[in-house]
């Protein structure tokens, strides 16, 4: 039997579904063709598949977290009008965003101020 045997292909598709490897299930035929053409060793083929699965899981996790956060769309730091809210320091906000030590520590950010001060916009943009 060759690599494109329909029975083997169907079995592999079912097994990848059972193992919850959706990215590999989709991409493996293309990777297999490339591996065959370029003469990849088995370890390289498996490494390429697993790296793809890991990257896709990470992408989906970020997508899911952003969806769950229910951040208002279109709120970016570029679209925030710092001039309209002089009590907000652009330099401080940019320094906060540039550094990630607060993220590594799992620290919270607390934004407070009067209504219309841009708290929700900044929170969404930072998120």
Describe the protein in words.
This protein has two domains: 64 residues, no CATH class; 45 residues, no CATH class. The protein is elongated. Helix 2 packs antiparallel against helix 3. It has six helices and no strands. With 127 residues, it is mainly α.
Biggest sheet architecture = none
Radius of gyration: 23 Å
> Would you list the SSEs in sequence order as H and E?
HHHHHH
Uncertain runs are none
Classify the beta-strand content into a percent band: under 5%
Specify the helix fraction band: 55-70%
Q: Any idea how many domains?
A: 2
Oligomer: single chain
Distance between the termini: 51 Å
Number of strands: 0
What does the overall shape look like? Answer: elongated
Q: What average pLDDT do the residues reach?
A: 88
Tell me the structural class: mainly alpha
Number of helical regions: 6
Quick structural overview:
By secondary structure, the protein is mainly alpha-helical. The protein is 63% helix and 0% strand.
């Amino acid at each position: 039997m060759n690599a494109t045997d329909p029975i083997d292909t169907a079995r592999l598709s079912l097994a990848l579904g059972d193992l919850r490897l959706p990215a590999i299930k989709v991409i493996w035929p293309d990777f297999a063709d490339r591996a065959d053409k370029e003469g990849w060793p088995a370890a390289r083929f498996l490494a390429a598949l697993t790296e793809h699965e890991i990257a896709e899981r990470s992408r989906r996790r970020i997508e899911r977290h952003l969806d769950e956060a229910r951040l208002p769309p279109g709120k970016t730091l570029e679209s925030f009008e710092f001039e309209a809210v002089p009590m907000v320091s652009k330099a401080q906000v940019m320094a906060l965003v540039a550094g990630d030590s607060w993220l590594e520590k799992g620290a919270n950010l607390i934004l407070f101020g009067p209504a219309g001060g841009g708290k929700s916009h900044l929170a969404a943009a930072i998120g």
